[in-house]
Design brief:
Layout lengths: L5 E3 L4 E2 H9 L5 H8 L12 H12 L20 H12 L1
Antiparallel strand pairs: 1-2
Helix pairs in contact: 1-3
Bound molecules: FE2/S2 (inorganic) cluster (FES).
Length: 93
């Protein structure tokens, strides 16, 4: 893959940027996320997450299963309790 390939389309982060950070010693997903905002776009890392984890695993010699994915946070925007209740009712059916 070309190093100028954008691996996070939500935040316009290239493969080179991720590799540079890893070579500087940032070898966890959360560290890279805090610096670049990778994984914080609308898809919440569903597109770029595995690519970043693969780069970390490759650079550190870890198995990708051992690389910790980002810490999940609650939604940034408020969610009405009525919506949550409706979703719960759907699960009961
Ligand atoms: S592609 Fe990275 S957060 Fe969506």
């Amino acid at each position: 893959m070309d190093e100028n390939t954008i691996i996070c389309r939500c935040s316009d982060i290239t493969l080179k940027e991720v590799r540079d950070l890893i070579s500087e010693g940032y070898v966890t997903y959360d560290e890279i996320k805090r610096i670049t905002r990778i994984g914080m776009g609308p898809c919440q890392g569903k597109t770029c997450g595995q690519l970043v984890m693969r780069e970390i695993a490759s650079a550190t010699g870890q198995n990708i299963k051992d690389v910790k994915f980002m810490t999940n946070r609650p939604p940034v925007v408020g969610v009405k309790l009525g919506l949550i209740a409706e979703e719960g009712k759907k699960d009961e059916k």
